[in-house]
């Protein structure tokens, strides 16, 4: 064994304690760290021929790279609908790496059974019935890709072909209808060979990102000559956390044939709040559902789940034939359910946080996030220099400058705010804007007051062009 490896193996208990102390110190500093730091990125260095061991590597990482990293795990990072990692989720993630299990085959221990138990808990959390089968994937983009790959096979079933076997060309024209589709939908359609131009934008309601049901029906009627369509509904849009009326969309199935995929990457968590659960009414009727766990469940990144009613079609797409893999059977291994063969046992972190805090604990996180978003929205509404672009439907406040709302001025504003809060730049109805998305378990009322104060000071410094 290489001497450095042997030395680290012998010292591993002490070295892990060093890492634990370093991690605890880092987490304790999140409230005071600059959210987006300003130090320059260190220049790259060549890989050394001789390693320095774990202790020296930790010291170098802390000195060279940590000062440049954003505090995205902290309470005032409000970009990209980014959650943190609850204490239990962090512990579960450490154990995931410790066990280093590849949960792709039931031949190898009980990892898949742990995944299935966790999926059952999540299904209940979101109000889905046992007709929905779930699979862990890396993120919302992969969840959408798996859902639409299954939908593509459904289109083939309707037309008497199998895209998985015969290629996507066997389908003929494909139409995908959506009011405000997330950018990952176009990426998925590109990967799946359906093509980005298959996505047909449908009018949304005035002043909303929710699809106009009458316009959707017109689009379905217009394209029915091409055969069945795919419809993508939103349960929480990225700009304003708006929701499509899924029940009304489902009612259109009485007259039109389509697969319904619901992008509920973070909006599915509205089910935990009694005051907002109505927003996801009809979710169980969807054919496939995307939920991103490293958003509002607050588990570390690289964790999402994909639900579908048609696991048979999912396995038709992703089945993997090899002598060392078992048959599909009634309960397929995950090797037959996603593009990945190998994947870490992502379920451990989710299992830990669900078991540690239960439905009630995660409901509190959701409702506190919503309250924070509304407090910020009210504060923005009260500032003459700012303009709220949409009501705060859930956990997102979208706003812009009242005067000269140019991308350049908004960039200058975010630069002035960078040490205190990170907001995502966006565009809504052609207007450059900023988006504050609340989903981190750490964010609380004092953070909101700090953010509001930072906004007021930054606006005072921002000069008109």
TrEMBL record:
GO biological process terms held by the UniProt record: carboxylic acid metabolic process
SUPFAM superfamilies per record: PLP-dependent transferases
Listed cofactors: pyridoxal 5'-phosphate
Annotated signal sequence range: none
Modified residues (N6-(pyridoxal phosphate)lysine): 295
Segments traversing the membrane: none
Highest rank taxon of the organism: Bacteria
Chain spans, region Disordered: 29-50
Any matching Pfam family: Pyridoxal_deC
Recorded GO MF terms: aromatic-L-amino-acid decarboxylase activity; pyridoxal phosphate binding; transaminase activity
Compositional bias ranges of the Pro residues kind: 37-47
Classification via InterPro entries: Aromatic_deC (IPR010977), PyrdxlP-dep_de-COase (IPR002129), PyrdxlP-dep_Trfase (IPR015424), PyrdxlP-dep_Trfase_major (IPR015421), PyrdxlP-dep_Trfase_small (IPR015422)
Keyword annotations of the record: Aminotransferase, Decarboxylase, Lyase, Pyridoxal phosphate, Transferase
Protein family per UniProt: Belongs to the group II decarboxylase family.
Protein known as: Aspartate aminotransferase family protein
Organism whose genome encodes this protein: Actinomadura harenae
